[in-house]
Records
---
Amino acid sequence: MKIGLYFCTCGTNITETVDSEKVMAELTAQFPGSYAAKVEFICSAEGKTFFKEHLLANRPDRVVVAACSPREYENTFMQILSEAGINSYFLQMVNIREQVAWVTPDPAQATQKATTAIRSAMARVSRQVPLEKKELEANNDVLVIGAGPAGLQCALFLAEAGRKVVLVEKTPTIGGMPVLFEELFPTMECGPCLLEPFEEEVLHGNYAHNIELLLLSEVAGVTGYYGNFTVTIKQAPRFVGPTCIGCGMCVEACPASGSNEFNCGMAEKKAIAMPFLGALPNFPYIDWKSCLRSHGDNCQLCLDTCPMPETMLLDDKERIVERKVGAIILAIGSKLYDCRKIRGLGYGEISGVYTSLEFERLASANGPTAGEIKTPAGCAPASVAIVHCVGSLDPKHQPHCSGICCEYAFKFNRILEHKLPGTKVYHLYKEMVASGKDDFSMLDHARKNPHATFLRYHDLKEIEISAVAGGQKITYLREDGESDSFSSEMVVLCPAMVGSEDAAKLGEMMDLTRGAAGFFDELNGRLHTAQSKVKGIYLAGTCQAPMDISHAASQAMAAAGYVLSGLAAGKKLVIEPITAAVDKERCSGCRICGGVCPYKAISFMPETETSRVNALLCHGCGTCVAACPAGAIQGNHFTNDQILAEIEAILQ
Amino acid sequence: MTTLEQTNPFEPKIVGFLCNWCSYAGADKAGASQTPYPPNVSVIRLMCSGRVDPQFVLDAFHKGADGVIILACHPGDCHYKEGNYRAVRRHRILLRLLEQFGIEKDRCNFDYVSAGEGEKFVRVITEMVSTIKALGPLRIPLPAS
């Protein structure tokens, strides 16, 4: 075999200690048919030209470049091989600068070490086989799950870029959680003021034609992989068609009512109703379990009063929709930690103890009390205790800090100061955070409220909230260990944010792992927080980690960015050849490989009872190759044969 | 009178399996800072320490290596998320097997070297070489027949 050895002297960087002539003579003698050429700087323009011309003139079967670290120029030299008509995977680089010449002062030792290293490369390269990059057609459409701020941002951004977006939302409306909030920190802007224009853009804007919005819908199945996913979506009946003008006459006529999830169950709504005042799209839906028709009644008062009866679809049925997309963005949000798990706080047992989400609705003009903050007895509270860090910073519950609770607690302070001047506010906290550009102003403002008191508690488990006449008594241990107590007329709990049940369900469906708190694992916590561990599935907003709206929106843009750069129009997906491949004949179907693959790239084929590597998802780490007890998996470009040849040549 | 060892001191042959992303880059850092270290370790670059098949280690000893060193990314730093965890577990099991062959466990070392740890790379290699020098050449005992 004709192996071309190119020895770069790197000026004198390498030859100062390594005797190039001795190395080249010894190795060309050991590998009959091979030749050696010396270059001064193979990375320079002249060096590269020489290299290419020399390859064209000599047509070697394999090429070894002994120079600097392959981490620098391997790719460059591979390209030159290609240009010279030689398969680029016929190259092996030997690092005789960083790992020999620069670290071995003794010339005899350096020459010996370089000879060994180059010999093993020549032994290896002779066993290298031609490999090619493969290309695959990809679908450029995108599925976005969740129409909160993050999901809307993704959908709009992608639609503006001309992408077709399927936006799936579980509820009958869009805008997510913050659209239900009266005000948002840190600017105290109203939630609908921020989000409604944005929602309008998605519904009726210049790029709305690129967004297919599926409300009351849930993803029921996902098959395929990056570039070629098939998604099954289950859409519940709304019973009201999109031609509805939103006049609300049906709502007045409806005789039935039921629990209102948009008000955290604190007030009822009609069986046919808008989700809440101002909800978009602006037309009602029938909550089937509350509707008399679900109990066999023939009531059709909604239809009878409707000025456009053709819009009422009382026989509406569940639909199963299938869509093909290239990428999936999860923007499904999170939930609050269940305060019932912390017995001493009395949540769910003592009246007047609310979660922060419930308080948001009490403070909201379109909430159950039309924005009047009232105790269950119907009076404005003279004092409100806000308990921070509920279920956070506590290994028994959730060890993490959600980061946003302090901010909204200070927001509540401001809302109380504004709506109910003179109300005493107690901030009962374990730790306090106010980082970032604007957040400290919230804390500062809260401190300046003359009726606000800040009390630091020692441990959540020592807080006891009990019902007393007119309100609650709160007993706790101060940080110095002394017991203290005070009374209030309302308690607001600020619980940890945790992953939702939907995250568990979708995670299982898409093979996504989740951390202890239920948030989706990201590919890398610093560089790739918007990318999940499965290629082609991205994360935006609080399903990945607790965050505020600004972070969620930024992450949404990042997720959309991945899609735009990875699935560009007219661009095919490239499958890198350094991947693993299963030899079906040798595979016993034990599935050990599937268990060790960090990328879920290996699937089991029941029809042949063998495993298969999806080369598009494989990153080429080789863990499965080492794990396979049958030796049935080959790691391309790092085959056993190649590595064993390297070992043998080292020890020759 | 000089002994054979004095004129021809034992220079161990050690095979090093380095992952591409951390340890190999760490070795390059040692090179960039031009810190000398003993030349006895020959490096085989793999994409991930998780690719180190225990068979490679056994083969290296079989073909005459006096020592083998596997260097990986630090826990939590693996470019492939968890290849280093596989590697460390395989190494632990491998040590038990090597003992049964009569190969001292110090001849097969596992350590973590990050892309920034040029100094640590030099230290780990230097210590490995002196450990193997102290152990002497590998002589695999023949099974009692």
Note: Chain A has five domains: 3-125, 134-234+318-334+500-572, 249-311, 337-498, 576-636.
---
Amino acid sequence: MTTVFIPAVLRPNVGGAKSLELDGSSIRAVVDALVEQHPSLGGQLLTEDGDLNRFVNVYVNGQDVRYLEGLETKVSASDEVRLLPAMAGG
Amino acid sequence: MPKSYADLLKEARSQIREVSPQEVDSLAPGAAVVVDVREASEWEQGYLPGASHVSKSYIEQQIEGVAPDRSAQVILYCAGGVRSLFAAQTLTDMGYTDVASMSGGFQAWKSAGLPFETPVVLSAEQKQRYSRHLLIPEVGSAGQAKLLGSRALLIGAGGLGSPAALYLAAAGVGTIGLVDFDVVDVSNLQRQIIHTTDRVGERKVESARRSINALNPEVKVVEHEEMLVASNVERIIAGYDVILDGTDTFETRYILNDAAVAAGIPVVHASVFRFEGQLTTFVPYEGPCYRCLYPTPPPPELAPGCSVAGVLGVVPGILGLLQANEGLKVLLGIGNTLSGRLLLFDALETEFTELKLRRDPECPVCSDAAVAAREAGHPITVDSVGNDVPFAMTMSGLAGVVSPEARA
């Protein structure tokens, strides 16, 4: 199980959870599992073509997956995945 | 048997190697530790470039601070070349193996027409006000003088801008520009501590100026009472050394980013949402810019501002102070900024998390291709929030001198 940290702005979509344990050997599999459990996240995380929206960054152990292998980046049980949307508040 | 001054001087001359000002001048930078042993009042009149100051009366106590390596070449000088001879004897006694005294001292140096530097002399009032800064070697009077001559621009005199402006003012940043077109609302006061209850309805830039000058009358406050937009951003940011971004709209953040990258001005970025905050420092071309981090803005429903989503008042307080800390380091040229790192703060858990940021080689604003396109007069047009205003490459800011590597 990979730990996925949910940012505050998306917590209403997952019943308020700060993090979730999800199965999957790649970011794509983990995100698919997340969206399957919480379908309302689908439109917020993914484009119509199934790619990550460019305003949501995904980090594995502090590294942006855009500079790893994107959705195909491999993850294992001990990895920490963090979803990070831009925030504007000042 | 008692010795006269002449005896002592003769003895010192026989023991200590003397070097001429010309020889000292011809040394490669870093080849020797040059120490001025005169009194502080003499040092303030001018000193050799690169010299450290340890007055003769403190030489035993303080020399190890400037010359920790006893085998390093140490050259001492005073006004005429006598005090430095006696001080050099002391260092020899302490085990320094390569000590010399500059013959003729600072007077001979000046008469030879060699270059010297004059420290900025703070007034007695400034020495008192900034005494806790002056005690820190990394700041000192040179650093304080740098702050007094610095210009910081704050976008937004709100939740983030309030603590940042007050602390930058307290630190003696000489010029603080404030961009805000709003007036003080009673609902601001839960976090915007630069404003006060009796100023509800007053222009925020005016209210902030009054608080800043009440804290430090020496700070010059420049009021930019307008909304930052593509058509005025270049004019507003011109001449500032660092920018603290504390706005609450994506559009302003992107416009500011694009113009600041073109102008080469570092931007300390912070944003807040309820119990959370994000902070980083964008140093143009040394690290990523805002568009490298977030290439496009989210749809409005995914990114509510504080007025819609709410925010715990201390969160912008904490993030705003971290912005001020980043700003001071940029201005002083000390330490390491958050360039290339995104710091997340979670107030509910009291947790800081750091993520690594990278420059996007395809960035439409800060990539090599984008710079080349802008220089050629055909800037890459960006998008949805953005703007199609081609910001001119003025590169007048501190970019290039912020990282320790660049300053070395």
Note: The radius of gyration of chain A is 12 Å.
